[in-house]
Each structure stands twice: as structure tokens, then as C-alpha cells.
Amino acid sequence: MASKLRSSVLARDAMAFVLAGGRGSRLLELTDRRVKPAVFFGGKSRIIDFALSNALNSGIRRIGVATQYKAHSLIRHLTHGWTFLRAERNESFDILPASQRISEDAWYRGTADAVFQNIDIVESYAPRYVVVLAGDHVYKMDYEQMLQQHVDSGAQVTIGCLEVPRMEATGFGVMHVDADDTIVSFVEKPADPPAIPGQPDLALASMGIYVFDTAVLFEQLRRDAADPASSHDFGKDLVPWLVKNAKAVAHRFSASCVRSKEESEAYWRDVGTVDAYWRANIDLTEVVPPLDLYDRNWPIWTYSELTPPAKFVHDEDGRRGSAVASLVSGGCIVSGGTLWRSLLFTGVSTHSFSQVKEAVILPYANVGRGARLSRVVIDRGVQIPPGLVVGEDPEADARRFRRTEGGVCLVTQAMIDRLPA
Known about the structure:
By secondary structure, the chain is α/β, with parallel strands linked by helices. It is about 25% helix and about 30% strand. The protein has 2 domains: about 10-285, Spore Coat Polysaccharide Biosynthesis Protein SpsA, Chain A; about 310-415, UDP N-Acetylglucosamine Acyltransferase, domain 1 (3 Solenoid), CATH 2.160.10.10.
């Protein structure tokens, strides 16, 4: 187990560059006002906090975050919660919005271009290694282990990979490797994924995590930027080129996944759909959840609002503030209502006689008196009217709200405002 905030030579020579510009359109209305990495997760965090916390806990003290789509919520969160790194300690935290730095008509044209447009900023810190990260996945990982493998193998690029059941890898970029995990070919969403040598039922799927020697990265970014046929993307352009023309090595997530004694498996989730997002949050209500947020050796850092403790009030039959198998954040008031297998973010209020089951309720939402909610995601600040019922009539739900294939209802304030008076 890695210790909290440890420092290592390799990590101190590295810079983490987090790609956080993609909308995440499969989250539907949850990303109408915020980019996917800024979506709330786990009661008090944002999705991007996991990649940033991994970097910090791994010992990396130089971090840049590239933003683009509807970035205000993300930038505000980063400004409030992540600007404690100090230049006088050889630390840095840069927020890098798409700002037409190369030309007046060029925003970030792809993931590789987002780094290319900020080469001068990365270069000013003179890191020996650059760790390129996606900012929209939930997991705990020690990047120092990946850096060590990168150095030991002499690779031009090291690519983080998940070991997944072979026929479940058809939706990923898959690495075909030899016995030493050197990548011999890269296949995008193959119908018949190549197996891991000696493990015929498993394949290696790309996590969108890359380690480069800085000089190699800059050389490849400049080569790619000069190619008019390129889409300027790491997964589509740079990685396939390096696999063919240089040494690319796969790093298995199982080798660097951080697990507490309570976690039985390597945990990684792409919470990119409403169903997956709901499930990952509800999973946290289990007696022993698959993701341990209580691990003090690998904390998930975030911006914590100053709030009073959660409060449960009224103690009458049928009107008792109570919660079973639920997570309730600071500033919440459960006033004469009941919760079961639900997760309430900061400042949520539920009123008398309300019933909330398997619900993910984002900050400062308000559940009216007598409302009944089941299998729902409630967006930030939504005012649920008294007596509203969601989750019991699929046809009515589909007419009024966004109902997923998995039977989860996403509710926003705009949907509430359209309800008949």
C-alpha cells in the first residue's frame, strides 16, 4: 500500500497533464451545464478529483488541466479546491482553457492537440516525464508504479491498460502484446479482440493513460501537428504511430491499482452513461462497497464546502427522519422522510412523509412533502414538488422525464418546470 502524499524521485520529475475538455454527451442533461469531469460523484467529489488525487497521492506535484466544453463549473471547482500547490515548493497547478493560443480559429482539435497547444507551458517546468490522463474515470492508481515500468522498459510510450474479458473488449482500443507486454499492434474496437499471451480469456483495453519521456512527447506532438490528415488524438493517431514505429509497452492496471483491505477487486469505472453513473453511486451504499472512499492512506482530495452536520428530525409514526444503507452529506436535512439505499450530496433537504429509494440526489436539491422517488438521479438544485411520484409508472416517467434503458429516471429543473400546474 502506498502511503499518503509520499514523494518519489520519478514522480517529482513528472508532470501530470489531465484532459478534461470532453462533454460526455451520454450523460444526457447532466452535462448540459457542466463538462463530464465536473459531474458530481460520491457525495462530495467531482469525477476529475480521482485523476487529480491519484497524481497527488503518487507524489506528482506539477499538474495541468486542459478544459474546453462548458468549463465554468469545472474551473470554479479547480480554483476552489486544487490551487493549494505552491510555486515556492516547486509545485504548480495550471488550468489551461482552450484559448486559441496557436491561431485565432483553432480551439483544441483533439486530445493530442490540447497538449501540443500548451507545449511552452509544460516546457517551462522542464519535467523529465509527462503523464497524460483522462479526467473522466473513477479509480485509484499509483502512477509511480507506471513511471517505474516506463523507465525500466526503455519504452517511448507506456500505456495504461485494463485486463477485461476478451469479448467485452469490443468497445475499447485493444493492445495486442507479446510475452513481455510490448505492444505489437493496436486495434480500435475489434470484433475479435486479441488475447493476452497465456490468458486466452482476457484482453488489454486502453485506459487513456500514457507516460512519455517529455522529449519524445514533444517530438511526436510536433510531427502530428504538421500532419494535415491527422485528427490530433492520442488514441487514434499518436499511439498507433508509436506502436508501429517505436517501442510501446502496456502497463497493467492490476499492477498499480490502489486497494485498501476492504476492496476485493481492482476498481475502475467509466461512469459515462446515466445508468453507469447511477449504479456506481448506489454501489457506495453497500455494507462493503467496491470502492473504499474511507481509505485514509489514499484520500480523494476535493473542495469541501463549510457545512453544518447532516440533521434528521421528527420522531412520529409515519413521520420519522431516517436513513438506511445511505450516504448523507453535510448540510442535509432529512425532515420526517425516509431514505433507503440512497446518496445525498451536500445541502439536500427531504421533507415530511417523503420516501426516497435508490436515489442519487445532487447538491441543494429539495424533495417536497409526500414525494416518492425511486431509482432516480436528481440534478443539482432541483425543486421536487410536494406529492410528486417518480419511479413507479414507467410510461408516465418516460413522458415527463428522461428514463433510461435501465429504468433510471434523470430529473432536471427544466423537466419539473414543464409539468402541468
